[in-house]
Every structure is written in structure tokens, then in C-alpha cells.
Amino acid sequence: MGADLTAEAVVAAAAELADPERAADLARFFQARPGGYGEGDEFIGLKVPQQRAIARRFRGIAPDEVVRLLDSPVHEHRLIGLFLLRGEFERALNRRSGPDRDAARRWVEVYLDAVRRGRVNNWDLVDSSADPVLGEWCHHLGQLDPILEHAAHQDLWLRRVGIIATFAHLKHGDATALLAVAPLVRDDRRDLVQKAFGWMLREMGKRVDEQLLLDYLEANASQMGRTALTYALEHRSPQERAYYRSL
């Protein structure tokens, strides 16, 4: 554990590993160009395993220091902040002596505030946090409203948070959250919504009930976007893919 559990210390640790050449590649990959979905984002060139390793060094960091990381213009700082947030949330919820729900709730509040303020604003940031934080919290409480509220939002990243959060329920063998979200997002043709929705449908067939996926596609394939349908059918036979596309 790092002795100096501050945002500045995390930033300094990240700076030691910065790679300008990789940073340029990441900026292109995450569409930081004008008009791209990641427009204006800044990168310093860290690999994800490096960011996870940094987060492990700063276990026990305080919420306000994580907020400072999430407010950074640098993409990697925000992802490290989310790794830290996720780790502290999971430790609070899974304590051997029983869940510390007050601590877990505080971390969820930090997360949701960051989402609302546009700090969780790229697909990797959403996908590394929505399921293990918001999704697990809602599953723990038996509540779907926060997930549905995000899925119903027109903002791209809030909507993707709502979709990906259903993954937590799917991992627990429960398709209720995804089936409740589906009508809210099915007709959204934005690429990053389509991919997330199709991915979750595929996981529903894999983790919960294959027939449930096929029944959903039978009823909805004709109204789904091609990208979502392609993702949902990724592991189906060529004959099945052809059939559902024909609908």
C-alpha cells in the first residue's frame, strides 16, 4: 500500500509509466478527435494492467481523493480512479464481518455523481464500473430504479451505464434487469448503445437462459438495429443468424 494515499501520488505514479507514443495511439482508438465520441480526452499512454497495478498500491484511499482523480482531464487518471472506487466499494460490500452498507453507499454516491457530471465518459470507463458498482449495488438492494433511470436517459454515457449495469444481474442468473431495460434502448441506433445492448442480450443467452434469448429475438429482431442483432447472435449457428436477420 502506498503511504501517501492522495490523488497527487497516484498521478505521480502514473506519470512514471507515461508513454507518449502509446498516448497518441490511444487518443485515436478512443476517438478523442473533434467530433469523435471521446472528443477532447487526454491520454498519457498507460496500459490497463499498469493502471490496475497502480490502483492496488493505493488501496484505502479516501473518497475525496478519488473524486479528484475522476475530475482529471487525463483518461488514465479517471480509469485508475474508477478502479480504486470499485475496489473500495467491493471491500465495503463483501466484508467478512458483514456488509458495511453505509460505506458502500457512499462509494456508489461518488460514482453516480461522477456519471452525472460527465466524468465517466468513454466506453471503457463505463464498462469497468457500471456492472461492478451500480449493478451490484442494485442487485444487493433488490432495486432496479437507478438502472432504469440511467437507461432511459438520452445522454450516451448515462444510457450505456444503465445497459452495462444489468450485467451484474446476468452474472447472478437473473435477466429481470436487462428485460426491463430492453424497451428503453432497443430503438436507439447509436453504435455504442447498440453494441452494449447486443452484448448484454448475448450474455443473457449464455449466463441465464438460451431460450430466453431466442424468444426475445423472435419477438424483437425485426425492430432491432443490425449492430445489436449481430452482437446478440455472435455465438449462434449460421442458420440461426440468417433466420433472425431475415425477420
Automatic annotation (TrEMBL):
<dbReference type="Pfam" id="PF08713">
    <property type="entry name" value="DNA_alkylation"/>
</dbReference>
<dbReference type="InterPro" id="IPR016024">
    <property type="entry name" value="ARM-type_fold"/>
</dbReference>
<protein>
    <recommendedName>
        <fullName>DNA alkylation repair enzyme</fullName>
    </recommendedName>
</protein>
<dbReference type="InterPro" id="IPR014825">
    <property type="entry name" value="DNA_alkylation"/>
</dbReference>
